[in-house]
Write a structure and sequence with these properties.
154 residues, mainly alpha, 6 helices, 0% strand
């Protein structure tokens, strides 16, 4: 075999390895993002519906979501098995999703925030020197609902 063909094969092998590594890294990043979105969604549901869960369910979810305890650590803390913790968290999640399906509070909250953001941007677009104070006042009143703080102009 000539040396040129051997180098071509090595290059092709190295190229394919890099492509596979990048593809695997991309898949891993997507999985991590999906897990984080799931945690954020569960946190939002817990904020809305957590009071409707039992005390043990609340405690398991609080430790899992906000204190980053592993299932084993939660089980050790509460004196229950790891499997019981998993079942408890899983049942809690299903219960909160059922509440959301019936009541739709999280969806409504998200839609309201999006609509308020659009209103905020529309009002911002109406700003002119003649109505600067009025627009600033309205935007100041909207800002807390959007989690924004108004910049102070000097």
């Amino acid at each position: 075999m000539c040396q040129g063909k051997m180098l071509d094969r090595l290059w092709l092998l190295r190229y394919n390895s890099n492509v596979k590594e990048k593809a695997l890294a991309h898949i891993f990043v997507k999985q991590v993002i999906g897990m984080m979105e799931q945690l954020l969604y569960l946190s939002a549901l817990f904020d809305l519906y957590g009071a409707l869960l039992t005390e043990k369910q609340q405690e398991c979810l609080r430790m899992h979501l906000f204190e980053d305890f592993s299932l084993s650590e939660i089980g050790e803390e509460l004196g229950i098995s790891r499997q019981a913790v998993y079942d408890n968290i899983h049942r809690s999640q299903k219960a909160m999703e059922a509440y959301e399906e019936k009541l739709g509070l999280a969806q409504r909250y998200q839609e309201e925030r999006q609509e308020l953001a659009k209103i905020y941007e529309s009002i911002e677009g109406l700003r002119q020197p003649s109505n600067e104070a009025a627009v600033a006042e309205v935007l100041d009143r909207l800002a807390p609902f959007l989690g924004r703080s108004q910049e102070v102009s000097l």
